Fold this protein.
Amino acid sequence: MTPDEYVEAVLELADRIPPGRVMSYGALADALAERSGRASARLVGAIMARHGGGAPWHRVVNAGGGLPPRLAREARARWLAEGTPLRGSGVDMRSAAWSPGQGV
């Protein structure tokens, strides 16, 4: 898989995350690892930062269920609108985590 194809795969998978659910950067990387040969949460984060403006970026979070402070306010509003389970200042990962095999 070329770097451009990997960017497309990351964004396509982010688009599949249902409203009210999330994936961590690492889980998204792991879901694509076998076919891409890559398994880097940091790379997924960089792709979301550079190319994720049109994707549901608020559904891809860090392992603790949060996003960078500069995005937190807008993300929280989106999470609330979607009914995403929250815990503290982030997402409740036990309740909200999604994987591609789960469906909606």
Summary: The chain has a mean pLDDT of 93. The CA atoms of residues 59 and 77 lie 12 Å apart. The two ends are 27 Å apart (CA to CA). Strands lie at 23-24, 60-61, 86-87, 90-91.
